[in-house]
From TrEMBL:
It is found in: Mitochondrion matrix. Pfam families: FDX-ACB (PF03147), tRNA-synt_2d (PF01409). Its EC number is 6.1.1.20. It comes from Paxillus rubicundulus Ve08.2h10. PANTHER family: PHENYLALANINE--TRNA LIGASE, MITOCHONDRIAL, PHENYLALANYL-TRNA SYNTHETASE. It is an enzyme of class 6 (ligase). This is Phenylalanine--tRNA ligase, mitochondrial. It comes from the Eukaryota. Keywords: Aminoacyl-tRNA synthetase, ATP-binding, Ligase, Mitochondrion, Nucleotide-binding, Protein biosynthesis, Transit peptide. It catalyses: tRNA(Phe) + L-phenylalanine + ATP = L-phenylalanyl-tRNA(Phe) + AMP + diphosphate + H(+).
Amino acid sequence: TRPPTVNVLGTDYPTDHMTNISPTIISKLPLKLHTQPSHPLSTLRSLIESHFPTYAHLSSLSPIVTPYHNFDLLSFPADHPGRAVTDSYYVNKDLMLRTHTSAHEVEVFGRGETRWLLTADVYRRDEIDGSHYPVFHQTEGARIVSADTDGMKEIEDDNATLEAHLQRSNIVIEDVPHLSPTNPCQPAHDPKHTGLISKNLKLSLNSLILGLFGGRVGATPENPLRVRWIEANFPWTTPSFEVEVFFRGKWLEILGCGVIYQPTLDNASKYFSPGVKNKLGWAFGLGLERMAMILYSIPDIRLFWSQDPRFLSQFKQGEITTFKPYSKYPACFKDVSFWLPENMNLHDNDFCDLVRDVAGDTVEDVKMMDSFTHPKTSRKSICYRINYRSMDRSLTNDEANIMHALVISRLEDQFRVEIR
Ligand code: PHE
C-alpha cells in the first residue's frame, strides 16, 4: 500500500521497493539552515568560508543525488553498509538523499574548480538522542594543484606560511605520520608529493580549527586547545585522517579528510568536461552541528531546528555567542513492548523514523530497553522507552499519551506487531 509517487521539493517522483523517505524528512529539505541569516550554522559556514577567501563557495546544490554519485564515483564497494535502506534515505532505487557532501566531489572537480568549499544538509538514518539527528550539515573543502614542480612549489610556500603562523599559537597538536604502512601512498603518486599534500592538508585544517576555536574555548598557554589527528579509512582518499578536538573532558570527532584517491579525479574527467588531468590534492568533510554545539554551547541537536524566538533571537550573523539555555521542560517517559510476527525483524532506525513521524522534535530520545527471542515460538519481543519532551513548552501527560497511542497503532498497522 505505497502511494505511486512521492513529492519532494515540489517534484513528484515514482516510488518503488527502496522508497523510505519519510514525511518528517521531506519537511526538512526546504529549510537549508546553513543559509538562514543569523542561524548558528550559517555563521559557522561563513566563518569557515572567510578562512578560505580564495576558494569557490558553494551552498545550493540539491540534496537529491544518485547512489552512483554518493557511492560509486567515490569507489565505495558494492556491499558497503551505508548503501542499505536501513542506513540511508531513498526517494526510489535511482535517487537518494546525499549522506555526505562528498557526493558532489566528482561533479565539482568536473566543473574545473581547483579550490572550493561546499556546505549542505546531509541525511542519515540514525538513532534518536541529544547528539544525533537524521539531518545535519557538512562543509566539504578541497584543493588540487598540478602534479609537477610548479604545483609542489605552491604547496611548499603555503606550508611555510602556515607553519610559521601555527607556531605562535596556543594549540597542542597530536599528529600521526603523513604516510605509514597502514595509511599508504597511492600507487599513482610520488610519496614526496603525497607527503607535501598531507602536510598542507593538516596545516590548513589546524589553522582553520585554531581560527574557529582559539581564544573561544579557553585556548590559553596554561590551557591550550588540544587537537588530535588519527589514521582513518575512506574509499576515495588515501592516506586518510580524522580529527578530534578535546572538549569538556571528551575527544569529539569533527572531520574526516585525506589525499584524494586518483580514480576520484579520473572520474571527473570521464564524466564531465574538460576534466582533471595531472593534478593531485586533498579533501575534507566537516560536521557543522558538532562544531557549533561546542562553539555556542548548544546542548541538544534538535535546537538547531527550533523556531522558538528564545532560541533564534539569541544569535547574530557572523558572531559566536554562548547560548543561554531557557528552562528545560519535564521529560515524559513511555514504554512500548511488543512481539514481532514470526521471522520478522525490526531495525531500530525503522522504529525511530516511525516515532519521528508521529512526534516530530518532541521526541528527545529513544532507547531499546530489552529484546529477546522466545525459545519455543522463536518470536522476538522488543521493548523501547521513548522520552517525549518539548523544547518549547510543557507537555501534558494527555498529549504524550495521545502521541504514544499513535506510535502504538502505527506499529500495529505497519509492522503487524502484537502489543504486550
Ligand atoms: N564524507 C566523509 C564523512 O562524511 C568525510 C570526508 C570528506 C572524508 C572528504 C574524506 C574526504 O565522514
